[in-house]
Design brief:
two-stranded parallel ribbon; 2 domains; ABC transporter substrate-binding protein; 194 residues; transport; Rossmann fold; alpha/beta; ABC_transptr_periplasmic_BD
Length: 194
């Protein structure tokens, strides 16, 4: 089971049955149910999805009670000296924040990343896309984080207000059930920390 862009899919299918999904063709939760069907665990997958949605929506209401109904949240990632901002369906926890919790993204993010899923920007204009809160995904394998000390970054209001939550990119790349559970816990702990 994998995505249809994997290399050697033909060779893998000669070794064992393969099921490949096109990323984004199904919603992230429908894909979990479809994988459940493939492995004869549809009932368990449906139950997990229902429980996850309930928990994410509950946590979302708790977060909104703390940060306010109108607060905006941006998800960004630095990768090989390029900054990306994300819409509501490109993993990195975006499905949880925007779809399940109903949190708001800034207008500049909606305009540029909502339809495409993500949008590449130069680091120096990141502040134009940052809402009240920033989820910043950083990869341990990418040592380029000097922008964190740059004056332009330090002048972003979310940074000055200590409303930046740094996530480990390797745990935020995906939207499978294990990753989603981890991301939900991360958001709950980050936004609701005492």
């Amino acid at each position: 089971i994998g995505l249809d862009n994997i290399e050697n899919a033909d060779q893998l299918s000669e070794i064992a049955p393969t099921v490949l999904f096109t990323y984004g063709e199904l919603s992230y939760l429908d894909q979990i149910v479809e994988i459940g069907k493939v492995v004869n665990k549809e009932e368990e997958a449906v139950a997990w999805v229902e429980e996850f949605q309930t928990e994410a929506q509950t946590v979302g209401e708790e977060i909104k009670a703390v940060i306010g109904e109108d607060a905006t949240v941006t998800v960004a990632e630095n990768f090989e000296k390029q900054m990306y901002i994300f819409g509501d369906n490109w993993a990195r926890g975006t499905e949880i924040l925007y779809q399940e919790m109903g949190l708001n993204m800034p207008e500049t993010v909606k305009e540029n990343a909502l339809d495409a899923g993500y949008y590449a920007i130069s680091e120096e204009v990141l502040g134009d896309y940052i809402g009240d809160y920033l989820i910043l995904s950083l990869a341990a394998t990418d040592p380029e984080t000097s922008f964190l000390d740059a004056e332009w970054f330090q002048n972003i209001p979310a940074v000055q207000n200590n409303q930046v939550f740094v996530a480990d990119a390797e745990t935020f790349y995906f939207n499978d059930s294990l990753s989603l559970d981890y991301q939900l816990d991360f958001f709950e702990e980050s936004f609701l920390a005492e």
